[in-house]
Amino acid sequence: MGFYPGVLIAADAQARLDRMVAVGPVGWAVSGGVSGRGQVGVRPADDSGRMTNSAITASGLRKAYHDKVVLDGIDVNVRTGTVFALLGPNGAGKTTMVNVLTTLLKADGGTARVAGHDIVTETKKVRASIGVTGQFASVDELLSGRENLQLMVDLHHFKGGEGKGVVENLLRRFDLVESADKLASTYSGGMRRKLDLAMTLVGRPRIIFLDEPTTGLDPRSRRTMWNIVRELVADGMTIFLTTQYLEEADQLADQIAVLDQGKIVAQGTSEQLKRQIPGGHVQLRFAEAAQLDAAARVLTGSTADAESLILRVPSDGGAKSLRAVLDRLDEYAIDVEEFTVHMPDLDDVFLALTGHSSTEAESKTEVVTK
Ligand SMILES: Nc1ncnc2c1ncn2[C@@H]1O[C@H](COP(=O)(O)OP(=O)(O)OP(=O)(O)O)[C@@H](O)[C@H]1O
User: Fold this and answer.
1) pLDDT by residue (tens digit) across 212-234?
2) What's the pTM value of the predicted model, to 2 decimals?
3) Localized where (predicted)?
């Protein structure tokens, strides 16, 4: 699933222009430098005009396709200037959630406000406040990077020189200067994603929806995208991110919601989620069954797997408890082949919460583009 933010932007250029005029002249931070959290972001106001700290709120959102329930009463609260990650395997309903919040799709029930505006009754205002990049970039392949950006600028009707400044600054900020005049069709997957995001930023959105921004990217491009996201948040933007990568949510998100079969099965910080499952353990591999049995007898609470000759010993991963395990083995002259410390990660969380691993989702990951 994915969608084409270009349609959204084109349909709403005037509203964005109105907002930009209200906000003031365009001035891009070339370096993407830190300007302080919350400094740039304007707090949304609710109907009574009160300022709120929530960039996005949703309550009881429901959506079904025929008899298939995709969103089954979703509640979220995304604080302004933070990264919120909606984590789930393929088909969990992530794109549907993004489409509903960005007003591209009507929910069957529930309410939501984005940038303080109701997604049903204030569609235009919502659209004027957000930027969206999907899994499938809205980049026009027959244009160069610079031309794609210029097209966005033209849609926003910047005045004269201001528009040129925006294009050049974004090219520099996203490290696209060298390839600016090459056709986007020659860009790598990572470059295309960067260009897509740069195009979204032309409208100076306060809230950005990134629908699986790194799916299919190689590890280096993924890290580049993570750094860009961190810079955007440092500049005061709010990011609603969907991902099927546990590490991505762990790395970027202030809050993570785990979506499974239409429901949010857990929500919290990465640390809070990790705390919901049993603690870490030390894994010891032995060369012989006799050694495994001996170790199992002297290390209390351990569980042995005779086939793999592996013993799991509960541990907090701290130096003290690790030393205690090794000292005990020494004391009984038991030789260990391999010693690894395993602290719980989000994959363990997913397994504990949903009863199934996220491996299914990750193994689907499409062809990696360089
Ligand atoms: N227009 C549609 N008509 C019918 N079913 C749909 C439609 N759009 C999505 N679905 C179904 O709804 C479910 C959720 O889809 P969605 O795209 O929201 O999931 P996702 O978590 O974004 O997954 P992916 O990572 O594969 O994009 C899937 O089973 C999908 O097949």
Assistant:
1) 998 888 888 889 889 999 999 99
2) 0.74
3) Cell membrane
Query: 281-343 architecture in CATH?
Result: 2-Layer Sandwich (3.30)
User: Which stretch of 116-125, 161-170, 260-269, 279-288 has the lowest confidence by average pLDDT?
Assistant: 161-170
Q: Which residue has the CA at smallest separation from atom 7 of ligand 1?
A: 65
Give this complex's ipTM: 0.96
What are the sequence ranges of the domains in the chain?
Answer: 5-272, 281-343
Residue owning the nearest CA to atom 5 of ligand 1: 65
Shortest-distance Cα residue to atom 2 of ligand 1: 65
pLDDT at 161: 65
How many angstroms is it from 95 CA to the middle of ligand 1?
7
Residue 316 DSSP one-character state: -
Query: What is the C-alpha separation between 49 and 64, in angstroms, rounded?
Result: 33
Q: Ligand 1 centre and the CA of 100: distance in Å? A: 12
- The CA distance from 191 to 101, in Å, is 27
Nearest CA to ligand 1 atom 26: 90
Cross-sheet strand order for the sheet of 130-133: 130-133, 207-211, 238-243, 83-87, 255-260, 263-268
